[in-house]
Design brief:
The strands form five sheets. A six-stranded mixed β-sheet has the order 12-11-13-14-15-16. Strand 13, helix 7 (215-224) and strand 14 (228-231) form a beta-alpha-beta unit. The longest helix has 14 residues, at 184-197. Helices cover 27% and strands 31% of the residues. With 276 residues, the chain is of the alpha/beta class. The protein has eight helices and 17 strands.
């Protein structure tokens, strides 16, 4: 695994004094994705768990339908001289998937926090979703408590203070897996890719994200079949409408004082309170 951090020596300023101190800084690299030898995207990512990312990204972007659509994949270094050396992910996908990708005819250049760079047609921005099917039932307090415990699992963010996290949690509140990245979209793609590789059933738990919840985050979870998504920050009206249409439960502002349940079309959250 590549080193997740670099080092810097900033001058620390406080009202009463200042000093120079070595600090860890999050690394950020460009990752080019090629499908069947055709360039498709360049994403800015944290340089670890890249296999998880390329699989999760491929699924949530609609390039593949499942992990078996990837025949082979490699991740190598960019051969061009560059002080900020990037990586190249080369994936061979099935002919049917590549034909579908070729029809999109889009080139996207990704940036941190950007989910629609390069989309040139409205119908590509919000792809149709199948309703999420799950028998999940989870107590509200379990979602709330797991979000409070997630901070302790954010290993790289503890070091740098610069990374988002996405986690998958069992109905009893056990945090099963966590992935981190400079980009909130990337962290969720890494989580989904990890779950694909390890055959973790998305319908059997819920996802947490340490960011706001825009429609892309809902779309990624619904594409994979995760029935409940809880965000630490705000959501948007489009995210709520998309969640409603996809039968996905959407929670936002999941913080110490409580959380807001914006959408629960299948009644998956058990409030366990009289009179509600």
């Amino acid at each position: 695994m590549a080193e997740p951090t670099d080092h810097s020596q900033p001058r620390i300023w406080r009202p009463d004094r200042s000093w120079i101190e070595q600090r860890d800084v999050a690394r950020e690299i460009p990752l080019a994705l090629e499908y069947n030898c055709v360039s498709h995207a360049v994403m800015m990512v944290s340089p670890f768990d890249l296999e998880d990312f390329i699989l999760g990204f491929s699924l949530t972007e609609g390039i593949i339908d499942n992990i078996h659509d990837v025949i082979e994949h490699t991740i190598g270094s960019d051969d061009k001289p560059n002080p900020h050396k990037g990586r190249v992910a080369r994936l061979e996908i099935t002919p049917a998937c590549f034909q579908r990708l070729d029809e999109f005819k889009r080139s996207l250049a990704g940036r941190t926090g950007c989910g629609l760079c390069g989309v040139d047609r409205l119908e590509h921005a919000i792809r149709p979703l199948h309703p999420v099917k799950s028998q999940l039932s989870v107590k509200a307090e379990v979602i709330h408590d797991s979000m409070q415990r997630l901070k302790a699992e954010q290993v790289q963010n503890h070091i740098t203070g610069a990374l988002h996290a996405a986690a998958f949690v069992a109905p009893d509140g056990k945090i099963l897996c966590v992935r981190e990245d400079i980009g909130r979209h990337n962290a969720l793609d890494k989580l989904i890719g990890h779950m694909m590789r390890h055959k973790i059933a998305p319908a059997d738990g819920f996802a947490l994200i340490t960011s706001r919840c825009s429609f892309e985050m809902v779309h990624k979870c619904a594409s994979f079949g995760i029935p409940v998504l809880a965000a630490v920050s705000a959501t948007t009206d489009l995210a709520i409408h998309l969640a409603q249409d996809a039968d996905l439960t959407l929670v936002a502002f999941a913080r110490k004082e409580g959380m807001n349940i914006y959408c629960d079309p299948k009644g998956r959250i058990n409030l366990a309170q009289e009179g509600i």
